[in-house]
Fold this protein.
Amino acid sequence: MLKIVYHDQVFVDFERICAFLLENGGSASELARVSIVPSLETLCVSPFMGRSVGMNQRELVISFGKTGYIAVCRVRLNLKRVEILALRRQREGSHLREPR
């Protein structure tokens, strides 16, 4: 089983997402947390879920409500870990991908 490692950007992204959800639906941020975290943890046993986006990165789609979230990650089998690089709402677009 691989270890999940969160880059600092993910915490910034999560705060941004929660702030947005609180502005637009109150307790939705708690629902998002419940939905996002278990989905990311599945990468421990299935690290190649999602689609390849080049540069050794993958995008995992996490369903939530009418849209969902995208987790940008990198699988590092040699280090026995999956790095979560960034997190965004699907509607935000790819310009928020983690810099290389």
Residues 95-100 have pLDDT under 50 and may be disordered. The chain is about 30% helix and 35% strand. The chain has one domain: 3-92.
